[in-house]
From TrEMBL:
It comes from the Bacteria. InterPro entries: AMP-binding_CS (IPR020845), AMP-dep_synth/lig_dom (IPR000873), ANL_N_sf (IPR042099), ATP-dep_AMP-bd_enzyme (IPR050237). Pfam families: AMP-binding. Residues 21-389 form the AMP-dependent synthetase/ligase domain. The lineage of its organism: Bacteria, Bacillati, Actinomycetota, Actinomycetes, Kitasatosporales. Transmembrane segments: none annotated. Coiled coil: none annotated. SUPFAM superfamilies: Acetyl-CoA synthetase-like. It comes from Streptomyces siamensis. This is AMP-binding protein.
Length: 520
């Protein structure tokens, strides 16, 4: 397992805000929503107040019975208080287990069963909704409500004023955080991170932040349960960057928020950037002050980068494209400008981060990796996760010594750039790269907000499209845009809201294909 120096052995999430507050207590944080667990707190507070909230939640969780080493599963309505609660659990040496608010009840039940009676932090909306038919008494040690009351549960509201506890620093190689994979192929896997591997993820992200010479307001719209949220805060808060934390990503609310807060650095999922194209020309100029755009989790369409860069009024804005995986964190990346974004190859993910990450291509079926015969993308990083909880053998099948095989396939260009063509499980016979086709057609049809190729009943490539404001797709424009791909079946149009998605807004292709086949 790759190691980072002992002198920088661990990143302890429970003290991130406290250490940042000791340097710059007045750093402002802005939310676009109210905290469920701390009603009346307001939407604007300082990093010093954040540190106080984390300490408060740690005390309340301790009073609820949580102790060092305990698993604390967090599955509640999406809200920034998820970060506060997880940091509080970490502060007393417990292991936060982040379960996306978007997970269906049966998936939550399966993961709780795998954890073997964890504490569950949730809310009445979940108890009355997706968890209504889940036998939680037999799956959990105790149910803790973030707010409100319910028979048979403990409410954090009633534990206000609990005695504060000293922070606990576990061994850096013990589990410190669990997140889960995207679940695009079925039941998510629980990814175990240690304080040491979290530090390994911190290094490349901190290096990227070091490129920002001016103190910028940073707007972040990523899932509150994703490891990226915890690393983003660990990087931004010590640098005293004002942070805008977003729960809502619909274009209208986003335009209003950015017109008021004027962020200089913007990070979100590729699919959110795609949706936000429609406000690029909004008279409120929401992207006018953005100097840096950062797209994490997946490749982004060149046309989206080009349009957003042109919406910025800053001198020489940059668009960072970062490729990473749940098990490894950020791996490769590159930057684009107004001069080259429009002609970028959407399959080019960039280059490894010198001195931190590496990648290699491994042939499939005895063939040398190339564009025509893409190979497995293996990566090396000190941020690689420890294991899959309860599925050690499954993890070790992809752990090849110090390398990790994430089952993406691609090739290396003559200039050393990593090109991603597909996930192996998403490959469709007769299509060289589903992602390449999607890039090409999307570039010709700006009215689309999403385009996904999935296999039909006879393994034919079926384009599933969503349009802005759900307007009907123009068949003539579609035929012209897809003329280079005669193997495509007729498009199926669905509202964007009906596409099954992961916590990071990726379309669940296998689930989408299953639904289409059921309808057929």
């Amino acid at each position: 397992m790759p190691r980072i120096p002992v002198r920088r052995s661990g990143l302890y999430l429970g003290v991130v805000a406290e250490h940042a507050a000791a340097k710059n207590a007045g750093t402002p944080l802005t939310l676009d929503h109210d905290l469920d667990v701390l009603p009346g707190t307001g939407r604007e507070f300082t990093v010093a107040a954040l540190a106080e909230h984390v300490d408060d939640m740690a005390a309340r969780l301790w009073a609820a019975g949580v102790r060092p080493g305990a698993h604390v599963a967090l599955h509640k309505t999406s809200n920034f208080d998820i970060y506060i609660l997880a940091s509080g659990a970490s502060r007393i040496g417990a292991v936060p287990v982040m379960l996306s608010p978007a997970l269906p009840g049966e998936s939550v039940a399966a993961l709780l069963g795998r954890l073997k009676r964890p504490y569950l932090v949730t809310d009445t909306a979940k108890l009355d909704g997706s968890l209504a038919d889940v036998p939680l008494d037999g799956l959990t040690e105790r149910i803790v409500l973030a707010a409100g009351h319910r028979a048979g549960t403990v409410s954090l509201t009633d534990l206000a004023g609990a005695p504060r506890q000293k922070p606990v620093f576990n061994d850096p190689d013990r589990p410190a955080l669990m997140t889960h994979t995207s679940g695009t192929t079925g039941l998510p896997k629980l990814v175990v991170h240690s304080a040491r591997t979290l530090r390994g993820r911190f290094r490349p992200q901190n290096r990227l932040a070091g490129l920002i010479r001016k103190r910028e307001t940073v707007a972040v719209h990523v899932s509150f349960v994703h490891s990226r949220m915890f690393l983003a805060m660990a990087v931004l808060l010590p640098r005293a960057f004002p942070v805008v934390l977003m729960e809502h990503g619909d274009p209208e609310r986003t335009a209003e928020l950015f017109a008021r807060t004027r962020p200089g650095f913007l990070e979100t999922h590729p699919n959110s950037f795609l949706e936000w194209e429609e406000i690029a020309d909004d008279p409120r100029r929401p992207f006018a002050n953005v100097k840096y755009f950062s797209s994490t989790f997946d490749a982004i369409h060149p046309g989206t980068m080009d349009r957003l860069l042109k919406a910025s009024e800053r001198r020489s804005p940059l668009f960072f494209q970062i490729y990473g995986q749940s098990e490894c964190g950020p791996l490769v990346g590159r930057g684009y400008t107004r001069r080259n974004a429009h002609k970028a190859n959407g399959r080019c993910l960039g280059y490894a981060m010198p001195g931190i990450t590496k990648f290699r291509l491994t042939g499939r079926g005895g063939k040398r990796p190339s564009k025509a015969n893409p190979g497995y993308i293996d990566v090396y990083t000190p941020g690689r996760a420890v294991t899959y909880y309860g599925e050690k053998e499954r993890f070790e099948k992809q752990a090849i010594g110090d390398w990790w095989r994430g089952m993406d396939i691609g090739y290396r260009s003559r200039w050393g750039c990593l090109h991603l063509l597909d996930r192996e499980v998403d490959h469709i016979p007769g299509v060289h790269s589903t992602l390449e086709v999607e890039d090409a057609v999307l570039a010709k049809l700006p009215e689309l907000t999403e385009l996904v190729l999935v296999p039909g009943p006879r393994q034919e490539p079926v384009p599933v499209v969503s349009t802005r404001k759900d307007l009907p797709l123009d068949p003539e424009r579609w035929r012209a845009a897809a003329a280079d791909y005669p193997q495509l079946a007729a498009p199926v149009q669905l509202p964007l809201s009906e596409l099954p998605r992961t916590a990071t807004m990726k379309v669940q292709r296998i689930e989408l294909a299953r639904r289409l086949q059921e309808q057929t």
